[in-house]
């Protein structure tokens, strides 16, 4: 059995890229240092912050809530709150909510659950059905993503949040990076920055990704060691398409050539810098939706556009 490179106890984690093995105690210390370094490096939080953690009930977001809550006890100016968006996905979301409530109550953090049904008049399941009947061309994840991002920003602001933390880890980021390249979605690349660049709008809450430099297997192990690991369940709408293949290929590359994921991340950061320099960084002013008053890139925000196409605008 491999031994910890620092104390000779049995190792629970082997960092191939770093060439070191860690026992439980030293893994948690390594994890903490890495996350704190990420937070510092990208200036994610200020001295006084009301941090809203976006939680889905999955392992990464539970790990983030747990980690930031623990860290906040050492920073007097930080207040941690949790926010879960319940899209209304039968047989799935109820289970992840149970895991979320267990962890939030154990930690004693303030939380809010916001439901599609209450905000839009319909659950995601119902919205997908309406879209099908109307012959709309969108995939379930398109409605889900647009409406979820809309509510995260709105609810975080209503909770008094000054910053919204999401649990994207290094694997998520580099997968999305490659996906955007394959699909020629250059305009989406600046959104993969560790701290949202803007747009500047009084109703827009800054977003940060504290696990930006942390591998998925590390957040998973953190969740296991802290007894956070949720019941494994997958969204029924998750389709294992291009992203799934990209994930598999990146993992294979990392296995054969340790450090590939970090290298991809550095490449992404460089591209973001270049896009920024040429004015494609996503900063600057943004308009206001003429229907709901939320930030919008055009006259009407994407959530209201979807609602109009679905014929459910009056159900607000
Ligand atoms: Fe939403 Fe798609 Fe994720 Fe399911 S897989 S939670 S529908 S984005
Ligand atoms: Zn709107």
Descriptive report:
- The protein has eleven helices and nine strands.
- About 45% of the residues lie in helices and about 10% in strands.
- The protein has two domains: about 1-40, no CATH class; about 45-310, Rossmann fold, CATH 3.40.50.
- Helix 2 (about 60-70) packs across helix 8.
- A hairpin with a 4-residue loop joins strand 1 (about 15) and strand 2.
- The strands form three sheets. A five-stranded parallel beta sheet has the order 5-4-3-6-7, with helices on both faces. A two-stranded antiparallel ribbon has the order 1-2.
- The protein has about 325 residues and is of the alpha/beta class.
- Iron/sulfur cluster binds near residues 140, 141, 144, 145 and 235.
Jot down its keywords.
single chain, 316 residues, alpha/beta, Rossmann fold, 46% helix, binds iron/sulfur cluster, binds zinc ion
CA-CA gap between termini: 59 Å
CATH architecture of the largest domain: 3-Layer(aba) Sandwich
Please mark out the parts with pLDDT under 50 across 5 or more consecutive residues, or reply none. none
Strand content: 5-15%
**In terms of quaternary structure, what is this?**
single chain
Number of helices: 11
Which structural class matches the secondary elements? alpha/beta
The number of distinct structural domains comes to 2
* Rg, Å, rounded: 20 Å
CATH C-level class of the largest domain is Alpha Beta
SSE order in H/E notation? Answer: EEHEHEHEHHHEHEHHHEEH
- Tell me which ligands are bound: iron/sulfur cluster, zinc ion
